[in-house]
Amino acid sequence: MIQVMAPPDLHRPPRRPHAWLPVAAASQLLVGLAWWQWGWPAGVALLLATHGVFFWGVMKPGSRLFAPVLTRLPTREPVVWLTIDDGPSDDTGPILDLLDAHAAKATFFLVGERAARRPELVREIVRRGHEVGNHSQRHPQAWFWALGPRRMRREVAEAQGVLTALAGTPPRWFRAVVGMANPFLAAPLREHGLARVAWSARGFDALEPEPRKVVARIGRDLRPGAIVLLHEGAGHGRNVEVLGLLLERVAELGYRCVVPEP
Ligand SMILES: [Zn+2]
Fold this sequence. Notes:
Layout: H1 20-38, H2 40-59, E1 69-70, E2 79-87, H3 92-101, E3 106-110, H4 112-117, H5 119-127, E4 131-134, H6 149-167, E5 173-174, H7 186-191, E6 195-197, E7 201-202, H8 211-220, E8 226-231, H9 239-252, E9 256-257
Parallel strand pairs: 1-6, 2-3, 2-8, 2-9, 3-4, 5-6, 7-8
Helix pairs in contact: 1-2, 3-9, 8-9
């Protein structure tokens, strides 16, 4: 893999997965106190405010409220980290060829059950020098943010098992489904030594079918150390085109596509 200068604490699995618990308890105690002291309008206002913070922590992909998250590489070098979610898919082969043609490396955040159906693609990703990350076992898109502790643990652990068996080494990075983390994600991440990765540049390529628009959006946020969010296998079938255009744009701007070293 291509080296990128990185401080040793770049890969940070959660260390205190239950740190949110006493904070949440204290905040609700405060709500009770305010209610008792100043009456219900103050109590309700504070209740809504504390729950607002909670939902912000869940819904905002870069939020560190419930687990540490990497949103960009701390470097001034002209490098970017391409992360490709939702595979393996029919796009994986053409994507690998494009990356080779541009001497680019990427991290593929794979879905466990899709990987189990296409084991040859997982091996090919690794053989060509790219990295495999964990993107849950079943990709429960609508409900990932609301999963309870047991289901969350299963989503992380099962994918980790499948991907480790196929890739030969355990994934080190986790990409939350739709980027959302809830209070129950940190514990299984810690258990498996997984660090959470969000992004700093995206073009909404899972929905946007026009590759030029996607690449223009990403281009606006390209800077040293940017983490680029891409997808494969989207219904509109144009993810490969997006990558082709993006790789050209990245080269024009003088960036190299790297994967952070362990
Ligand atoms: Zn996804």
